[in-house]
Amino acid sequence: MNHRERAIAALTRQIPDHVPTFELEYQLADEMFGKPLVPPELHPGRIEKLSQAEKEKKIYEMAEYMAYVYGELDYSIIPVNAIGNCTATDISPETRLLIKDLLDVTNHQVMLTFHGDGTFYIPDGNEMYEFAYRIADEPDEVKAQAQQMANNAIERNKRLAEAGVESLILCSDYCYNSGPFLSPAMFAEFIQPYLYQIIKEARRNGQYAIKHTDGNIMPIIQMMVDCEPHALHSLDPMAGVDIKKVKELYGDRVALCGNVHCAALQTGTDEEVRASAEYCLTWAKPGGGYIFCTSNVPFKGMPPERYRMILDIWKQMRDY
Fold this sequence. Notes:
The protein has a single domain, classed as Alpha-Beta Barrel (TIM Barrel), CATH 3.20.20.210. It is 48% helix and 10% strand. The protein has helices at residues 3-11, 29-33, 52-73, 93-105, 128-137, 139-163, 184-190, 192-204, 221-226, 243-250, 262-267, 270-284, 304-317, and strands at 77-79, 111-115, 167-171, 175-176, 179-180, 208-212, 231-234, 255-258, 290-291.
């Protein structure tokens, strides 16, 4: 199987030749491969100064480097970086060109993914009170905003599908370690219907929807599964989410991604890291429908040797 075929098999709860891997984001390119994924010339404030020919050259070089990095990591799904000025309803011409170049240099044998959510997420500390008051005082206006956000995401996801992006990371965080930021009843009212719409339209576009949220999702997991995503990510062990239990409860309805303990990768012992990776593969791999990855991302500052360790364990245990 090639990487794309392997990803499709896992996302449709089939059994591929081996467990695929990917990450929501990968932040260790500089440490592990010598330079960041996005060259400085393509950062905001600098990309605008390039001529069209210079821009096209830099974007192609970025696509080649991304293909090399993710090829070395053996990812089946490549997370695409947004460059240029993307809007709420469309991607930038530069991002569209990067997608085209990535598909070309990988011979269309790797799946591409991009952020595609449009639902409310945990407000920051400055906005939490305002959001709580609005839900209490202006519920209809909040729902109208939720609908517009969903409409915007649906429109942009269509543009992504046209550009060749086959999967979407629906990356709105709903939960703290203690549980969701909204009660289950409020989640059902202000988030679930709009998440369902986004996923339904993604499926209609032929895209695979991977719903991400950190934290303790167990009080709302049934509602998320009822929205019919292809997969759930990241099944956060730091919040007590047990991938074995989730597999038993929902493995016949949704694929699973993640659960390797990010905090252990940063501060734990080698034995704790190894145990977490082995636990995920032992309990989530059987029967298919599993993609191996961390419970968040390989973040800046994580020791690269720890990330290499879990990839080595994955290679030892991944075959069906």
